[in-house]
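Weekly structure sync, notes
Attendees: PL, DS, HV (note-taker this week)

Item 1: DUF4304 domain-containing protein
DS walked through the input record. Source organism listed as Micromonospora deserti. Sequence as pasted into the shared doc:
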Amino acid sequence: MGARRAGTVYRMITPAQTTYRLNKDIGAVVRPLGFYGTRGTWSVVTTDGVAQVNVTRRVMRSVGGGTIFVAVGISVVPVAWWEYLNWRAARWGQPAIPLDKNATSYRIGFVETRQCPEDSYYHLRLDPDRYPATVTTTEELDHAAALLVGAADKLAHTALDLLRPGRYLQALRGIPDLGGAMWEPLVVLLAEGGPSAELDAAIEDMRADYANYGFGPPDMEVEYARMRAAAAA
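Item 1 (cont.): predicted structure, written out as tokens:
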């Protein structure tokens, strides 16, 4: 399939072909790092937790052409967070959460979204001469692939780094606007290091912030943190 413009023939690429090409190229980069999967989702499971690289695609059409929006992201579940989730699930009478690729449904999320490089998303322009616009060019796809594959490589390394003991906690500490729901994972991860003045202060700040936001008191979170810290002492 081709479209002639200004004497040049452009090979046209559909959104489905775009997805196949990007998944193939990104998979080739992340698999050597230990990530396994298909169809835009690659995961690695270790004793330190679960990390995942994923590709999302959304087609937005308009009379003026439209775009194929593609983004690369990561999800990380440190094993300390997974253990807390299972303790909480048992307390609530819910099934245990396996330590597998699906555990990323329970990711913390606050650090991952702040670790994305600038080239982790791209808008591929759709051909405005075709309505409804459903195709883009190989040149546009090649450019997008070069950027997104590079971003996927950086993000895969970031995800693996965040799985290392203490690294997700260190990244959480570095968030300047820490507050609200961020206190729960911070307190849980701090508890892994045993009792400390930092843990005590975080618990007090969490109580105050929860009250300020109108949340219920974090008694369960505090109970777990105190128990875990005592066990780690």
